[in-house]
Design a protein that fits this description.
two-stranded antiparallel sheet; globular
């Protein structure tokens, strides 16, 4: 793969996430702060892998199977007119809460809590909703955690042991509790069952609109081709019951084409540069061969741990 092609792929893959300021631009002000997850955590490894792209798509699809959650998105979100802005904000939240120092995590969580406090209404089936309610927050948070884990198990560069998977879920549960989510399972198997067997799921008008949008978002050229492969990979990891509710057909080649797309992206992107930056902030050794992109912020010449 020529360097010009690699640069095009890199720009295509990272471009949709750059529509707001980078959330860790001041993280070196908190030298030595491990944040919520910290060095050696399962979260730093799992969420830095390219498979997390697949997890993000999976999470948005599954989240839309909850009528009250998707009604809140349909009624209050600008995703139809600003889809990349919403994607960037979601990505920034995950980056800040996973790799950020303690104050950065707290700011990110508080920003979401403030935004959710304004999201209230009634779904098509007559149930009132509030995005800040513990149960709805739990659906959004737990599906995101479960989706990152499912995508990593299917497409991740490193195989997770059951103990690693449980550790990842426990780490992410800390963030869920900060958000006010309840319940927040702390074991991978319990989390998976909580999501797949959730009793409040049902088709809805908002679900249909969200699924159609996610199947064919307003991307062009190389971005759209790559996204489609990742989307097929994401669909292949969704539990049968939820995929049936969503009305999505399982493609026979979805898993292998998703795996191919992840491998190509991993060869171009490496691991997330936010993990690299968090290692620098905490004074940890930076492993060779994991990072292909430059640090997202400049290190001041007088900076030291």
């Amino acid at each position: 793969m020529g360097e010009s092609w690699r640069a095009r792929v890199r720009a295509s893959a990272t471009g949709p996430f750059g529509h707001i300021e980078y959330p860790l631009r001041h993280t070196l002000d908190f030298a030595g702060d491990p944040g919520v997850c910290g060095p050696g955590s399962a979260s730093w490894s799992v969420i830095s892998d390219v498979a997390a792209f697949v997890g993000g798509i999976r999470a948005l699809l599954i989240q839309s199977a909850h009528p009250e959650v998707v009604a809140g998105v349909a009624d209050h979100s600008r995703y139809r007119v600003d889809p990349l802005g919403r994607l960037s904000r979601t990505s920034a939240y995950v980056t800040a809460t996973t790799f950020g120092a303690g104050p950065e995590v707290e700011r990110a969580v508080e920003a979401v809590r403030r935004a959710h406090g304004r999201v209230e209404g009634t779904s098509h089936r007559g149930r009132s909703y509030s995005a800040g309610a513990p149960g709805l927050s739990a659906w959004v948070h737990n599906v995101l955690t479960d989706s990152f884990l499912a995508a990593h198990r299917a497409f991740g560069a490193v195989t997770l042991t059951p103990a690693d998977a449980d550790r990842f879920v426990r780490e992410q549960a800390r963030i869920g509790r900060m958000l006010g989510a309840e319940p927040v399972p702390v074991e991978a198997e319990l989390l998976s069952r909580w999501v797949s067997d959730h009793p409040d799921l049902a088709p809805s008008p908002g679900m249909r609109e969200a699924v159609d949008f996610l199947a064919d978002p307003p991307l062009e050229g190389l971005q759209k081709a790559g996204y489609r492969l990742l989307y097929l990979g994401a669909v292949s990891t969704i539990p049968d019951r939820i995929r049936g509710l969503l009305g999505i057909r399982l493609r026979r080649r979805g898993r292998p084409v998703g795996a191919l797309a992840v491998r190509i992206l991993r060869s171009v992107l490496g691991c997330s540069p936010s993990w690299n930056l968090a290692l620098v902030r905490t004074g940890c050794p930076v492993p060779e061969g994991l990072f292909c992109q430059p640090l997202p912020v400049d290190i001041p010449p007088d900076w030291k741990l």
